Amino acid sequence: MFKIHTLLAALALASIAAAFPSHAQPSRGTPPAPPPEAYAACKGKTEGASVTLTMPDGKSLAGTCRTMDGTLVA
């Protein structure tokens, strides 16, 4: 009986330890660049213009054109 309790306790601790990395905060490096669709949606627009981005999977996203590194992007 003692062996079963020890085994269950060890299994529980291993499960808890395995869960921590999945909840860790991501590294705080530079954010990823916007997708090409974000640049294409603002082509010919002005800053503050409302645009709709159509992603490769067919989903549409609403956005606003902003200047980022000298280029308009939604």
Short account of what is shown:
This protein is of the alpha+beta class and 74 residues long. It contains two helices and four strands. The strands form two sheets. It has a two-stranded antiparallel sheet. It has a two-stranded antiparallel ribbon with strand order 3-4.
If you had to describe this structure to a student in words, what would you say it looks like?
The longest helix has 18 residues, at 2-19. The mean pLDDT is 82. The N and C termini lie far apart (62 Å). Helix content is 34%, strand content 22%. The protein has a domain at 36-73. The chain has a two-stranded antiparallel sheet. A two-stranded antiparallel sheet has the order 3-4. 9% of the residues are buried. The chain is built from two helices and four strands, in the order ααββββ.
How many helix segments? Answer: 2
Structural class: alpha+beta
Helix-strand pattern, N to C? Answer: HHEEEE
**Overall morphology:** elongated
Strand sequence of the main sheet, in spatial order?
Answer: 1-2
Low-pLDDT runs of 5+ residues are none
Largest sheet: 2 strands, antiparallel
Strand content: 15-25%
Overall mean pLDDT score? 82
Percentage of helical residues?
25-40%
What is the CA-based Rg, rounded? 23 Å
The number of strands is 4
Spatial gap, N to C terminus: 62 Å
List the helices and strands and how they pair.
Blueprint: H1 2-19, H2 36-42, E1 50-54, E2 60-64, E3 66-68, E4 71-73
Antiparallel strand pairs: 1-2, 3-4
Keywords:
single chain, 74 residues, alpha+beta, two-stranded antiparallel ribbon, 34% helix
